[in-house]
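B., you asked whether I could sanity-check this one before it goes into the benchmark set. Here's the sequence:
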Amino acid sequence: MDKNRIYKLVFASVYPLYIKKAEAKGRTKDEVDAVIFWLTGYNKETLQKQIDSRNDFETFFAGAPAMNENVSKITGVICGYRVEDIGDKVIQKIRYLDKLIDELAKGKAMEKILRR
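And here's what the prediction gave me:
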């Protein structure tokens, strides 16, 4: 995994891709936002500030109000890596978000995505 490249990714440039992926499968921007809010503790206003600031993923996750206490329940493979086994905490958080967006796009129920 190329850490330098991943660390430099700007959240605001990837966010529309998350929405596009979800919408292509009949899901909504609001559902993408709900997943991000659940994972990070951001709300509509604070998420928009992160987007407007064009922060990279490291800064995005460092500024997260509170990672969800059930984050350890996110398991499985994303991009060829088991998310629960990724040692780098920033990359692991990015992959957690990727995994949740994939689950959303695959039609999984929101209750299951949000580990309720």
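One thing to flag: The beta strands are 77-78, 81-82. Otherwise nothing jumped out at me.
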